[in-house]
Amino acid sequence: MTTGIPKEQYPGERRVAATPESVKALVGLGFAVAVERGAGLGAGFTDAAYASAGASIVDATTVWQSDIVAKIRVPIDAEIDRLGPAQTVISYFYPAQHEDRLERLRSRGATAIAMDQVPRTTRAQKVDALSSMGNLSGYRAVIEAAAALQRPFGGQTTAAGRIPPCTVLIIGAG
pTM, whole model, 2 decimals? Predict the structure, then answer.
């Protein structure tokens, strides 16, 4: 059984559905893994790193012929049109927001697994992608706030005087 990892098509998306480490784990479980050329570059993973983990580096056409296709974003219409019967796509899908794409996928005989629908429970923790992304988003929110504030968070006393500490409120919705 082949798992395909395509390059994300959404503008500005730098994430990739598999790392060289996760490819190595899939290969260890007996899967063949096909990674689209350049799929991991935005996330800092080279084709050579995927190849050394056991993946085949392939073109877009070949990766979409895999039994299972794992990606981050909701498949766009052109990607859904590449899928056929007995293929499965795993991604964030948000089925209630993308009923048209879900219907298009169903009409092609393909199956979707929506990672955003995985329950947030202890038993499902290993595949709870929303919690891990929420955690990372929280770190980024602090960095973005510090960059926008343009002054230190903590109070400081310098030869030029005293800078009082900031009061910061970061609100997350997730």
Answer: 0.77
